[in-house]
Amino acid sequence: MSERGQQPLWGGRFGDSPAEAFERINASIPFDIRLAPYDIRGSIAHARMLGQQGIISPDESRTLVLGLEAMLGEVQAGNFSWTLADEDVHTAVERRLRELVGDAALKLHTGRSRNDQVALDLHLFCREAAEGIRNGVLEAMWALVDVAEAHKDLILPGYTHLQRAQPLLLAHHLMAHFAALRRDLVRLEAAQAAATVSPLGAAALGGTPHPVDPVVTAEDLGMEPFTNSLDAVSDRDFALDLLYACAVLGVHLSRLGEEWVLWTSQEFAFAELDDAYSSGSSIMPQKKNPDAYELMRGKSGRLIGDLNALLVTLKGLPLGYSKDLQEDKEPLFDAVDAVLSMLAVLPEMLRTARFEGARMKEAAGGFALATELADFLAARGVPFREAHRAVGALVRRCEELRLPLEEVPREELAAAHPALDEIPEGLLTPEGSLANKRSPGSSSPRSVGLQLEEARRFLAAAT
Ligand code: ARG
Question: CA-CA 20 to 30 A from 212: which of 88, 163, 424, 458?
Answer without folding.
Answer: 88
